[in-house]
Amino acid sequence: MSIASKKAVAGVSLIEVLISVFILAVGMLGVAAMQVMALRNNDSALQRSHAVIQSYAILEAMRANRSEAIKGSYNTNGMVCTAPQANSLVDVDRRDWISNLKAALGNSERTCGSISCDAANTCTIQVQWDETRASDKRSPAGQLVSSTQTQIFEVRSKL
């Protein structure tokens, strides 16, 4: 074998390095995409946890003021998205609840709450919030597609 042929075979070719770097880059993009998805799912779970916490917070306030809750004073007419004026303890509880919902779930016009108690003292609490941030969709061109993802959490409990 001549010296010239040994030099031609020795070492790694530039094409092999280029292919290796390309495969590594594709793998890193996959890892980044999985991380973004994990962060979105984590944000979604956090918002749901806040909705659960705030639902039980208003239930506990209603249990503390049971006589008014049984009368239906805490009931709302559908979803309430703005904190009411505080003229009584019931109004203070509802104002604080809506304010806390907006602080925990985002100050959006779609962050709302609803309270409905029936004659059997079973209360239904609904919390609605906008989860668009956690579910952003992109077009094939990579542009953000406007989408509204409204979530509703509901809990029923006896007073």
Q: Would you tell me the structural class of the helices and strands? A: alpha+beta
**Proportion of residues in helical segments:** 40-55%
Number of domains: 1
Estimate the global geometry from the Cα principal axes. rod-shaped
- Write down the secondary-structure element order: HHHHEEEEE
* Major beta sheet summary: 3 strands, antiparallel
The averaged pLDDT comes out at: 87
- Radius of gyration equals 28 Å
Strand order of the largest sheet: 1-2-5
Runs with pLDDT <50, length 5+?
Answer: none
How much strand content do the residues show?
Answer: 15-25%
Q: Would you report the number of β strands? A: 5
Distance between the termini: 93 Å
Q: What's the total helix number?
A: 4
Organism: Xylella fastidiosa (strain Temecula1 / ATCC 700964)
Protein name: Pre-pilin leader sequence
Transmembrane segments: 12-39
Keywords: Membrane, Transmembrane, Transmembrane helix
Observed structural traits:
159 residues, alpha+beta, three-stranded antiparallel beta sheet, two-stranded antiparallel sheet, 4 helices, rod-shaped
Description:
By secondary structure, this protein is of the alpha+beta class. It has one domain. Helix content is 51%, strand content 18%. It contains four helices and five strands. Helix 2 packs antiparallel against helix 4 (89-105). The longest helix has 51 residues, at 14-64. It is rod-shaped. The model has no long low-confidence stretch (mean pLDDT 87). This is Pre-pilin leader sequence. Keywords: Membrane, Transmembrane, Transmembrane helix.
